[in-house]
């Protein structure tokens, strides 16, 4: 993309317990127990874990907002998603991450 070459392949293995650094955690995959339960949206996960996540748009609205040149709204939506994902990852790490994964992390 844009002539940039990745320097590290981060998606070699889907399961975090089989990965080597650098780790790549797919929260949707992890929280849905490898697809065992229905995949739900970020706002739904945030509601379930009582994480504040308020935006006036969803990911499906981005294209229309872009056409309307509502760039600040898109940035605000993305920033809210990043904050929510950070909190969700912290909760996953604390309560759901496999011990084998936790043992491999350098604290």
The description of the largest β-sheet is:
none
Which geometry do the CA atoms define? Answer: globular
Number of helices in the DSSP assignment: 5
**Rg from alpha-carbon coordinates:** 16 Å
Instruction: State the helicity in percent bands.
Output: 40-55%
Would you tell me the overall average pLDDT? 86
Sequence of secondary-structure elements: HHHHH
pLDDT below 50 for ≥5 consecutive residues: which ranges? Answer: none
Terminus-to-terminus distance: 34 Å
What share of residues are in beta strands? Answer: under 5%
Q: Based on DSSP secondary structure assignment, what is the total number of beta strands?
A: 0
Helix/strand class:
mainly alpha
What does this structure look like?
- By secondary structure, the chain is mainly α.
- It has a domain of 65 residues.
- Helix content is 46%, strand content 0%.
- The chain contains 5 helices and no strands.
- The longest helix is centred in the C-terminal third of the chain and has 25 residues.
- The model has no long low-confidence stretch (mean pLDDT 86).
List the helices and strands and how they pair.
Layout: H1 27-31, H2 42-48, H3 62-67, H4 71-95, H5 99-104
Keywords summarizing the entry:
46% helix; 107 residues; single chain; mainly alpha; 5 helices
